[in-house]
Amino acid sequence: MRHIGTITVTFVLFVAACPAAHGDAARQIVTAPSSGRAVPRDVMERVYEQVKTPYKYGVVLAGDNGAMVDCPSVFRHGDRWYMMYIQFAGTGYETLLAESEDLLQWKPRGTILPFRDGAWDAKQAAGYIALQDCAWGGSYKPQVYDGRYWLSYLGGALEGYETDPLSMGLAWTDDPTQPTEWNRLEEPILSPMQPDVRPFEKITLYKSNIIHDPTETLGYPFVMFYNGKQPNRECIGMAVSKDMRNWLRFGADPVIDNGDGISGDPQIVRMGDLWVMHYFGAFWKPKAFDTFACSYDLAHWTQWEGPHLIEPSEPWDETYAHKPWVILHEGTVYHFYCAVGSRGRVIALATSKPLEQRNY
Questions:
Q1: Which of 10, 230, 275, 331 has its CA 20 to 30 A from that of 81?
Q2: CB-hemisphere CA count at 13 Å for 9?
Q3: For residues 239 and 328, what is the distance between their CA atoms, to the nearest angstrom?
Q4: What's the pLDDT band for 9 if we cut at 50, 70, 90?
């Protein structure tokens, strides 16, 4: 889900294509704590041993007729698993839903965020499940807020592959298992046009992960992590909310910044008293890969400096292996990721235990 290249969108187009978002009249940046406790190396090593997935199962989902698929987010509902994923078939991003009984065999169900004419997100709508139970080895069920299930998504009005600018939207449904269109808020919740936009997100906003923190570690029950773009660089920042609809940026700076290239597509899980962020890196080390960081307070993160969780090694992911969604179920870690290689852009799986590898 990334195109690195020259930014050609003019300022006039940037303004016209990206409307104001909720709460612009009185926006502010919430002040982040000035210091936090670093996670010791031995704790980081224990996390790595719990989340590593050295066994590549293979491709689990591919697009029809050569369409590119990307950005899996996997959740549980009832007795089945579901995957939100995005597809690019030449116009822009749409969000689709797939279903599985065993996390291995996936059946596409249909589109839940299609194109819609005349809206701020007319040609781009890439969605990710929100408010999922993020406990490591937990239920992985999405939680209900205000009587509804939620997803966040990046959206834009212009055709093309991730054409800038992109903003953050929010959508809801009564039943997340049905391949029917979700209901969207009429305006974006975060936008690069807002007056409080930070330097690392001035061009566009990318993938987001919204969690519910019932302890309100940061003083807010809802916390969002997302990556934003400035020229030739992407970093991960935060926003917070009390009601899911009105969001405030948290902290003046990104929480994950590797100084160059891309740090993006965060997924947050909870391991006891520790928060773990899975994310991908690209171009500040060779190619693209998945790694992680840990935190005690959600605001200060210690980055893992050891072996990558996923990196290119097989024909189907020889170009890129990145964009993680990682869960623990019945003693096995399932690491879904976007693979780019001999099969095009597809969704692949690696696990903590050897399974019968798909023949690709």
A1: 275
A2: 23
A3: 27
A4: very low
Looking at the chain, how many residues does it have?
A: 360
Contact (CB, 8 A) for 70 and 347: yes
Is 45 in a helix, a strand, or coil? helix
Virtual torsion, Cα 136, 140, 146, 150, nearest 10 deg: 110
β-pair partners for 14: none
Give tens-digit pLDDT for 136-184.
999 999 999 999 999 999 999 999 999 999 999 999 999 999 999 999 9
- CA separation for the pair 340, 89 (Å, rounded): 15
Cα atoms in the Cβ-side hemisphere of radius 13 Å centred on 148: 14
Q: 14: part of which helix (H) or strand (E)? A: helix 11-17
Q: What are 294-336's pLDDT values in tens digits? A: 999 999 999 999 999 999 999 999 999 999 999 999 999 999 9
DSSP secondary structure letters along 209-228: EEEE-TT-TTS-SEEEEEEE
Q: How far is CA 145 from CA 66, 73, 79, 130, in A?
A: 37, 19, 21, 10
Q: Is 90 exceeded by the pLDDT of residue 23?
A: no
Q: Which residues does 2 contact at the CB level (< 8 Å), separation at least 6?
A: 162, 206, 234, 262, 264, 282
